[in-house]
Structure formats: structure tokens, C-alpha cells
Amino acid sequence: MTDEELHRHLVGRQGSRRDLNTPVLVVDRDALDRNIARMADFAAANGLKLRPHAKTHKSAAIARRQIAAGALGQCCAKLGEAEALADSGIEGILITSPILSAPGIERLVALNERAEGLMCVADNPVGARAIAAAVTARGGRPLTLLIDVDPGIHRTGVASPEAAVELYRAIVAEPGLHYGGVQYYCGSQQHIESFAERDAAMRERANYLRAVLAALEAAGGKPPIVSGGGTGTHRIDATLGLFTELQVGSYVFMDDQYRACALTPEEGEVPFETSLLIDTRVISANSPGLVTVDAGIKSLATDAKPPLIAAGAAEGTVYFFMGDEQGALVHPAGELPALDAIVSLNAPHCDPTVNLYDWYHVVSGNTLVDLWPVSARGRSR
Q: DSSP readout, 332-363?
């Protein structure tokens, strides 16, 4: 039985959040909408466009809310996400990872024929030419490519201004391609906890991007789009005078990793709210000093610290993993929730946590108000 089959009848019933089958992925709709509005207002006030990253939420429903608030589209980390969102009517998609395999390129070119405003990144002439050949073979419309620039992570991206110019020339030489600009996503800077240290790191990386942009402009390839930035650096990105659009993602949910970061220079200011939670239930309370909840490794991302507790347990209660399906709660004074109590956990890292679920359970207060599918979950690359 799916979550929708289990829970659809609870929609609109007062207090129905308590009756959800746990563990369950919960979105606070009101906090989510406030987060979306705040980032939209920030971008507009700073003359920037928003193309939020759907790798965070994998949801057409959330993408629509972001677009309704002013976003010009969505970023997708992989081809399967882009297919899922495009097939749900989302336009203006940028695929932020290079696609090189022959099957992937065929899917990409096919998607370009039905997805308005589709763009993809490339980081080498070989990949660009392969995409161009597939476009020509199908007789499809040209595909817009952005040059992915390595910000120092050495994951993807051209490694020098000269390589960026070489790729630009390869793109404009192909009738099946359209040059869209550049992507510059500084992923390793996003979670530097100190704002001052993050600011310094981004300004150093901005100097490198300026060199790349200057080389492209000198070659006749001034980028129409400079896409990048993130939740951790958005306040800094807006002051650099380089980006035309931001790829912010996690601001919609604010997981524990981002809550540990000072997102603004003002001490204590938290511009976004936690809107993503995992509701769990106490299923065993037989051992002194701890109780067991029904959410373990298969319910929460494990690439970060264990989740903080949002509600349902006394302050000072700590969660730790107890296996695939269970976690334990401990409290220094033994003040533990009772058997069958609901305990809400923050997401340690929102993107891989969302990927473990099929449905968002959308709440307002303690009432279930809707169910949204995690529509891009499980889609192949």
C-alpha cells in the first residue's frame, strides 16, 4: 500500500498529522511558502534571476510554487530529474552535470524536443560535438549549452580560461548547438560555517571566474547567462557583480547542515525556516535511559551528523542511529517521550533524505492538507 493510499483520507481532518504512518516525510507548507517568498524577494531586490535546484526537492509541486513566485525555471542534477519535471510541465530546466554517454545524449536530445527552454552544461569539446551530432541526426532544434567551469573542486568543469575559450569555439561552430553562457557552482564553499570565512573564500573564487569571463569576452563569447551560487553563499553571490542567476536549492527546507551556517553577516539572523521534517514514533521504551523510534538509516541521510530533534522530546534529547529501521533517543536526565509519542526530526542533509521517500505529507500546523509526489525520485540518470 502506498503512502497516498494510506493517508489520502486524512487530508483536511483536524489533527490528522498524528495519525500518519511513520516514519514519514513532512513539509510545513506555510514555512515552505515563506522561504520561497523570501528568496524570491531577495533575488528581485538584487537584480538576479532564480533558477532553484530541484535536486533538493525532486518535486514538480514545489517547482511550480517557486516559479509562481518568480523563478524562471529549475536546475536538475541529472537527466532523469529533468525528464520527470519536464513531463510534469516544468519549463526552463538547466541540467547541471555533463552528459556524455550515447544513451544519455539520445535522451537529452529527445527531451529538448519537448521541453521548452531546456539547457545543459558541457565541460569538453568531445561531449559538445557528440550532442551536436545527435541533434543533427534527429533533425531537432538546437540545444543550448552552458560551459561548466571548475571552481576548484575538480569534479566537473573546464580547468582554465583557455579551455573555456576552446569549448566556446567548439559550441558556436556547431549548428546543432546554441551558446548559453557559463555555470560556476562553488559547492565546497556552501557549508563553511563562518560567514566571514565563507565570504573570503567566495571572493577568492570570484577572481578566477572573472578571469574566465574576461577570456570568453575577448574571444567574442561574453556569456548571456552566468549561473551559480547557492543557499550558503547567496548573500555573498549577490555582491560579486558576476552572476545573472542563482541556483539556490536547500533554502526551501533548511536542513541541519545549513542551520549550522551563518547565512548572513548579522549575528543570530536566520533568514529561512526549517520546513522539512521526518515524523517518527516511539515504538519501544523498555530499556532505562533510552527509547526507540521507527526511523533509522533507511529513513535519514547518513552523510551528515545525526538529526537534531525539532519537536516531541525534551530539550537536550539526542538521537543516534540504531540500525536500518530504528533510532534511539537519550536524555541526560532521563526525560524521554512516552511509548507511541510522535517525535519530529530535522533532515540532516535534505537532498539524500528526500530521495528515500515517495511522498511529501504537506501539513499546516498539525493537519495534513495535501500529498505531493516526490516525482523525480528514482529516475535513472
A: TT---PPTT-EEEEE-SSHHHHHTT-SEEEEE
